[in-house]
Amino acid sequence: MSNKLIKKQQFVNFVLKIIFLHIVIFILRNFYYLIEKLVRKDKRIALFFLTEKYYYDNSKYLFEYMRQKDEFRSVLFTANKRLYAKLQEKFSGEVVYALSLKGLFLFLRTKNVIISYGISAAPFFPYYLHEKCNHIIYLGHGTPMKKMGLQTEVWQKYGKRYQMQKYSYMVGCSPLEQELHQAGFGMDINDVWVSGLPRNDYLLSAPKDGELVDKYPFLDQKVILYAPTWREETESAEFFPFQDFNSEQLDAFLEKEQAYILLRGHKEDLKRADELSRFDVSKMKRVLKADQDLFPDVYELLPYVDILVTDYSSIWIDYLLLERPIIYIPYDLEEYKKSKGLFLDFEKNTPGYKAASFKEFRNQIETYLQKPDEHADWRKNICDMYHSHQDGNSSERVFQEIRKLNR
Fold first, then answer.
1. How far apart, in whole angstroms, are the C-alpha atoms of residue 304 and residue 399?
2. CA gap 401, 166 in Å, rounded
3. Which range, of 68-82, 142-156, 182-196, averages the lowest pLDDT?
4. Cα-based distances in Å from 391 to 143, 157, 204, 205, 395
5. What is the SS3 assignment for 120?
6. Looking only at Cα atoms, what is the longest distance across the chain?
């Protein structure tokens, strides 16, 4: 089949998928609206709807905070059987399997649904989160520097915006983020709480878990985490995209510095499993994989990280709270601006070295290891812009907002 015919068939399949999702979501939306009106809601239930296969991120940290309070019955809710079984071992009686009658009845009675992932309504299937029946509280999973939701071209095509999950409330870290969420998700600005993110409470306490070091002894040396973002509309991120890259020289350099580089591909890139996301580390001694299978929750890893290497990922914005150096590798900046779009000047608002070659990259690591305070004032200024609260009380602020909704 010619490339022209293949592309035509791919386009037809894409359009059919869009039409199918439109129909399914339309049916679910009206079905749940009718049936939920027949069931009395319980404002004391806080349902943490997990759509990922791991237990992590803001939902994890807010759940563990709220379960200590007596005001709500906090429940973890998942359709992933493996995750359900694992959570039952730790939180017996506080986890419900979503694809069960018990799960259905609980969902129908629930007033407060709390989520960290789900821009589209599709991940919640066979449930539908109806904003007229529930308080849908979106904690999110990253402070953005890139455009999101309705600000991007992908959500403007083929009526896809009608598949977007509607939220009742969102959380953010600053007035800047408040405005971005308003524009990206069509929110009333007053419904975006400038509370800070629950996961950052953990980061600000920067605990180092002795068990993690016992399991991964390299965490006791200098650690450099390399974590690029997901490129939704283009190819996966490329590790070490330098023409002069030399893996033997990198290994020797890291040996001299008694350091390790941990590669953490984006979870969506790992699903693609293409050549770029499969960077081969088998012949390198001091460059290791640190994907979600090893470290499901990157926030447990970050306290060990001495230098962060990234590009446009929001991880660096949270990492600012640790006051440690950041190196950026924006090798495809112009392409990324066209496909995704940035709302701030990249060079001015990313407080760290930009590496365009292997030689630069190696020298910048050496500098930051010797002088971790290099660019400290720049990082502080950007940190203050993105984080209105740096006190470790974000979970409490979100909890108080949820309390107000249910008085």
1. 29
2. 19
3. 142-156
4. 17, 41, 8, 9, 11
5. strand
6. 68
Asked if the model's pLDDT at residue 242 lies above 90, the reply is yes
Give pLDDT tens digits for 168-209: 999 999 999 999 899 889 899 999 999 999 999 999 997 777
- List the chain domain ranges: 39-196+393-405, 208-386
Name the CATH superfamily, with its identifier, for domain 208-386: CDP-glycerol glycerophosphotransferase, C-terminal domain (3.40.50.12580)
List the beta bridge partners of residue 115: 138
208-386 shares the fold of 39-196+393-405: yes
CA–CA distance, 219 with 211 (Å, rounded to integer): 11
- Per CATH, the architecture of 39-196+393-405 is what? 3-Layer(aba) Sandwich (3.40)
* Predicted local distance difference test score (pLDDT) of residue 392: 96
